[in-house]
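seq:
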Amino acid sequence: DWWGPSFRPRCCRQLSCRFRKRSLSTHYDNDGSIFLRQVFQFDRNGNKIGYLNYNSNNLQTSTGRYELDLKGRKIAHYHDGTIQNSNVYDDHDNIIKEVYPTGAQTFFEYDNNGFAINQLDIKGGGFSFGGPNRKFTTFINDPFGNIIEMKVTNAETKELLFTQKNKLNNQGDEIESIGYNADGSVYNHTNYEYKYGKPPVICILSVV
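struct:
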């Protein structure tokens, strides 16, 4: 929620996975120190409506807010009062388009089970997500709709840009994410550890 559209693993995985309502997420650096603590806010219906970010000194650094429609769907995301993106849904409550203030757009396609299978990113004026003007992503899902693999290509040249593979635990939460460059070398390796029970649920992130 705080990384924005440039954080590829989280943005892609959130389309079809079964997130539980976490009230607290804590992220650790390689040396074991906390670099981010995020407290989520919910309305009386259990819909996530915002978050507060704190640094390692427990000082608040930023805030986020979600605008919901009458069905409780997120139609806009604001960070520190500035809009980050707005969402458009289909009749099955799937996000089919994200629109950014600079004109960049992301389009999503789903199968008959409502699982995300394709994503198209188009740059807008002043907004750069890195790489080519158009990026095309294909997803492989497990039987529950969690994304376990994704491949990103240049939508114009069909050149492979990178691949990401995810491992999940029995609760459906991601426990490992490995990003591979086109040549097969690893550019990112992230592990996740969770503690379950009564809220808050804590997510521990480490980068290998």
